[in-house]
Specification:
The protein has 237 residues and is mainly α. It is built from twelve helices and two strands, in the order H-H-H-H-H-H-H-H-H-E-E-H-H-H. The radius of gyration is 22 Å and the shape is elongated.
């Protein structure tokens, strides 16, 4: 329903690859004339990415990780490739391993939280997002926390966090992706999603008037916001 922002694989690949190169350059006997085995696997990885063969790219990352098991950049990129291929269990396990040895590796928190959510482990996903939010005070993390709390029926906490979100400047600036009336993905102001969720909370409390007010407020900003429209229609039945 709502999408978490993730770095595109092209830019992430370049960033992490150069990080790995700098580490490899420090190895003994690593010269252009005598490339190391790590150089070979790095090149294999790049070829796999270039030719869209992610199985080759993943195998190369495993080979690199076997050589440098504590290299968080390699492990994170491996978890990202699994995430891109919707192999969420593997993505989550690798990301959690990175977090366990490097609690400040913030990108792995996002991969772990998103993967756990996709696996339906909402309580565990929420725990990871809460840890991430404590480290970053990030609007997107708090947004995910509020939605997960609603799904887990933790309505009091959800409402408190929604109030915090509505007060932040990002509520008037950020965008979020939802399906429109034609079931096509479209960007909407994030405020309409917050207003819609607020309406759902009022509905849970049995306050139809409050729920209607918030659904209508969302539709005033985005008249084609299908989720709020459906929720409003359900109130009138």
């Amino acid at each position: 329903m709502n999408k978490v922002k993730l770095i595109k694989i092209t830019s992430l690949t370049i960033m992490l690859f150069f990080g790995m190169l700098s580490g490899a350059a420090a190895q003994e006997n690593a010269t252009e004339e005598q490339p190391t085995i790590l150089d070979h696997f790095q090149r294999t990885y790049l070829l796999g990415i270039r030719y869209n063969d992610y199985s080759i790219a993943k195998n190369a990352l495993y080979d690199m990780l076997a050589i440098e098991p504590a290299n968080d950049s390699i492990a994170h990129l491996l978890s990202y490739l699994y995430f891109q291929q919707r192999q969420y269990a593997s993505a989550a396990l690798i990301a959690q391993d990175v977090i366990s040895r490097n609690p400040e590796h913030l990108p792995s928190f996002e991969i772990a939280a998103s993967s756990l959510e996709s696996l339906g482990a909402l309580d565990k996903s929420l725990e990871v997002y809460e840890r991430l939010y404590l480290k970053t005070n990030d609007f997107q993390s708090l947004y995910k926390i509020a939605f997960l709390q609603y799904d887990l029926k933790r309505f009091i906490e959800c409402e408190s966090n929604l109030d915090l979100l509505m007060e932040k400047k990002e509520a008037d600036e950020e965008k979020v992706i939802f399906n429109d009336a034609n079931n096509q993905q479209k960007e909407y102001p994030i405020k309409v999603a917050l207003l819609n969720l607020k309406g759902l909370l009022y509905k849970e409390k049995g306050d139809k008037a409050g729920a209607k007010k918030h659904f209508e407020a969302a539709l005033a900003i985005a008249p084609d916001f299908a989720v709020a429209k459906e929720n409003l229609e359900s109130l009138n039945k």
